Amino acid sequence: MDKHTQKHDTFIRAIMSNQQIALDYFRACIPQNIQNLLDFSTLQQLPDTYVSKDLQKSISDIVYTCKRAGGKGEVKISLLVEHKSYVDKYAPIQIGSYIFSGLLKQIGNKENPSLIIPILLYHGKDRWEYKTLIDLFGDLEPALQKFVPDYQYIFHNLGQISDDEIQAVNNNFLAASLLAMKYSAFKKQLNALLPTIYTLINEMDKNLLNTLIVYILEGNPLGRDQFLQMITSLPPFPNKESIMDTLEQFVEKGREEGKLQKTRDAVKSLIEQSVLTDEQIASAMNVDVSFVVDIKKSIAAQ
Fold first, then answer.
1. In 10 A of CB 1, how many CB atoms?
2. Please, how many CA atoms are within 13 Å of residue 172, restricted to the half-sphere of its CB?
3. In this predicted structure, what is the pLDDT of residue 61?
4. What are the structural domain ranges in the chain?
5. Residue 53 CA from chain centroid, whole number
6. Closest Cα partner for 200 from 235, 236, 161, 238?
7. In the chain, at which end, N or C, are there fewer CB atoms within 10 A of the end residue's CB?
């Protein structure tokens, strides 16, 4: 995954690994007639993944299992996160690959095949409408359509859900997270919503709180002083001090990473000049020789 994709992947994994948040998310996005067939009191997360190495470039998955209502066996509820910033008409093929690789993995584990319910959460900036595999084949005669695998998935498109509906979700932290995801590609709208988002994230685990704040801050054009001014101007609310502390830590980390990058660039330049030894470069830049060697290896690998 690239850095942009990794940002979303890390955030989704962090919040959806909290079982209460995952449960409230499933209740918000799974149609009620399907929920009626599931026993969420038996919900538990599985450590496994069904995503192949190829799919990991764009999709991450978090797998939960629960029993069907009435104890009629188990169902795998799989959350697929689509990270692409553009509409991918071949997503139904990816989802089909996901479903069948999951079933093959179950068989390989000597399990009876268990139903997989894929959820495709999309939060990109482009318009994307629900499509199934059959839509890729144009006008197929009915006799030929039977050869196209027929499966459905739950398409949760945040762009088609109003902010009011999101804020009505029965979990304030989840609502704040979904708003942050919905506007992750629209920084002006996101920053206009920050007061709303900040006041929603009350009484939440500090690690998850920090994860959300960092998710909002990464790549945001607002500077430290603007963020602080915005937060300071808000009336008192839970976690206000924690948010300000996280902001300070994020800014400090950014400064340190900036200094480190400048050092890397300087060492790289000296290496490319081929004048000094590794030891001389390390001494001149006040770094360990191993630091110079690692950069030399990265240059050779390019």
1. 15
2. 12
3. 78
4. 3-160, 194-302
5. 17
6. 238
7. C
